[in-house]
Amino acid sequence: MAPQHGPRRARIAFSDSAAKQLEDLTSEAEIHALDRALVVVSVDPDVGEPIPGDTAGPQLREYADEVERVRLLYWVTALKTVVVVAYLEV
To answer: Left if phi > 0, otherwise alpha if psi is -120 to 50, otherwise beta: which for 16?
Structure first.
């Protein structure tokens, strides 16, 4: 009998500006907060709220984690890859 697996997670990619932000993270608390937010978004890419704007480009979304006090700005590709545009502490 084959093992049961959970739903497939979305792949996470980072824009150049988000990658630069990651390089600047230094504390364990910041890394933990970001990891937690990325897991939530990878499990359910539609969890964030759509950000109103131009419909010509990708639909930006915002996910806010009030417990960890972080925000992710991201968009989801047609193949369900989550592209993180920015990571913000609130």
So the answer is: alpha
